[in-house]
């Protein structure tokens, strides 16, 4: 598989921006090459703790310290890792690097995460939709029919948002083995899943791109930090196209600190999975809840008697869930994020009283 050939023509020929730090990487005592402020940053001293000393300097464009720490947790080498300003940056880069506007197309599998289509629209790329089957699994025949010689990307979200289920592993492998473009598996919710990540399959499939994020299980949605794992050829393309300093120093510092607290994150994951299964059972016992779909994520999709009325009544009590009742295959459904045990109890009581 030739990743080079998949690239857009202008990207293939692009000479990337060369930063001051690309041109001189060594140790020195006087750096006067990047027009930074050598006096320092105006952060108050007490806030400018040990790691906040160098905010007057541009950050590492390749975030090697942070990638090294992530590599120790994920087992993925640094050259197979890209960090973005949220997963959304990686999604956008996939379009910008691999899809020729007004010519190429991508395949998405509704109901699914909304950003794939928005990002395609921004980049003027045709979106071909192959709905999931009623059991929320892949329509492999439909996907095969939708592919043509201009199809560059297929987005598979697993566990899927908003349905919550994992996609059958062998079906994903079928797509990976037969499609000549990139297969993106969005694993934003993988920490809550019984199914294991596809990270171990990276060496087998040069066309595999895995997206993960710090926004969900890691509890750092505000940081805007997403990960993409792929063959080094794909990562090299990302690094060529991304803005030079796409991950700021504060994000790099804070993420490094957070990675030391993995025990807390694992505790939260355990509690969330327990609460998810408990809330699913408790909701199903209510007469106004007609269906709760099995979930591998930190949310559940529940079909209720009158979705709009349920949604509005919850809003009146200050409880906000996501109304998905107009979404294909999710008719009459609400998407409910698993909160703290206390929050889940509050939600359950509120629905019981409708
Ligand atoms: C929440 C979510 C993301 C995370 O996006 P970020 O930009 O990293 O916050 C990615 N994919 C899916 C399917 C999601 O639901």
UniProtKB/TrEMBL annotation:
A GO biological-process term: L-histidine biosynthetic process
Pathway(s) this gene product operates in, as recorded in its UniProt entry: Lipid metabolism; Amino-acid biosynthesis; L-histidine biosynthesis; L-histidine from 5-phospho-alpha-D-ribose 1-diphosphate: step 7/9
Span of domain Aminotransferase class I/classII large: 32-351
Keyword terms, alphabetized: Amino-acid biosynthesis, Aminotransferase, Histidine biosynthesis, Pyridoxal phosphate, Transferase
PROSITE patterns registered for this protein in UniProt: AA_TRANSFER_CLASS_2
Known EC number: 2.6.1.9
CDD domains on file: AAT_like
Reaction(s) the record says it catalyses: L-histidinol phosphate + 2-oxoglutarate = 3-(imidazol-4-yl)-2-oxopropyl phosphate + L-glutamate
Pfam families according to UniProt: Aminotran_1_2
PANTHER family: HISTIDINOL-PHOSPHATE AMINOTRANSFERASE, HISTIDINOL-PHOSPHATE AMINOTRANSFERASE-RELATED
Subunit-level organization: Homodimer.
Protein name listed in UniProt: Histidinol-phosphate aminotransferase
Organism annotation: Pedobacter frigoris
Taxonomic path: Bacteria, Pseudomonadati, Bacteroidota, Sphingobacteriia, Sphingobacteriales
UniProt gene name: hisC
């Amino acid at each position: 598989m030739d990743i080079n050939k998949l690239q857009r023509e202008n990207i293939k020929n692009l000479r990337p921006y060369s930063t001051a730090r690309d041109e001189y990487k060594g140790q020195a005592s006087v750096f006067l090459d990047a027009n930074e402020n050598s006096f320092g940053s105006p952060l108050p001293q007490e806030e400018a703790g040990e790691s906040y000393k160098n905010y007057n300097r541009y950050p590492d464009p390749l975030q090697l310290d942070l990638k090294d720490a992530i590599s120790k947790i994920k087992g993925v080498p640094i050259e197979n890792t890209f960090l973005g300003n949220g997963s959304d940056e990686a999604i956008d880069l996939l379009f910008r690097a691999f899809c020729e506007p007004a010519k190429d197309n991508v395949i998405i599998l509704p109901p699914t995460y909304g950003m794939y289509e928005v990002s395609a629209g921004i980049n003027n790329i045709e979106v071909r939709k192959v709905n999931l089957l009623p059991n929320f699994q892949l329509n492999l025949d439909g996907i095969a029919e939708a592919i043509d010689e201009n199809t560059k990307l297929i987005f598979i979200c697993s566990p899927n948002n908003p349905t919550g289920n994992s996609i059958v592993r062998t079906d994903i492998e079928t797509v990976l083995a037969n499609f000549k473009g990139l297969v993106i598996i969005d694993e934003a919710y993988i920490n809550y899943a019984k199914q294991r990540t596809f990270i171990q399959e990276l060496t087998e499939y040069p066309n595999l791109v895995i997206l993960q994020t710090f926004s969900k299980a890691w509890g750092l949605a505000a940081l805007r930090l997403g990960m993409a794992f792929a063959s080094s050829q794909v990562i090299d393309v990302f690094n060529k196209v991304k803005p030079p300093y796409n991950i700021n120093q504060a994000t790099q510092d804070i993420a490094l600190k957070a990675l030391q607290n993995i025990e807390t994150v694992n505790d939260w994951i355990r509690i969330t999975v327990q609460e998810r299964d408990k809330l699913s059972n408790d909701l199903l016992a209510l007469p106004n809840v007609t269906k709760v779909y099995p979930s591998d994520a930190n949310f559940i999709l529940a079909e209720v008697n009158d979705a709009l009325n349920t949604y509005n009544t919850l809003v009146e009590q200050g409880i906000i869930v996501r109304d998905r009742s107009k979404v294909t295959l999710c008719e009459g459904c609400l998407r409910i994020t698993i909160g703290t045990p206390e929050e889940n109890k509050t939600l359950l009581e509120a629905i019981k009283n409708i």
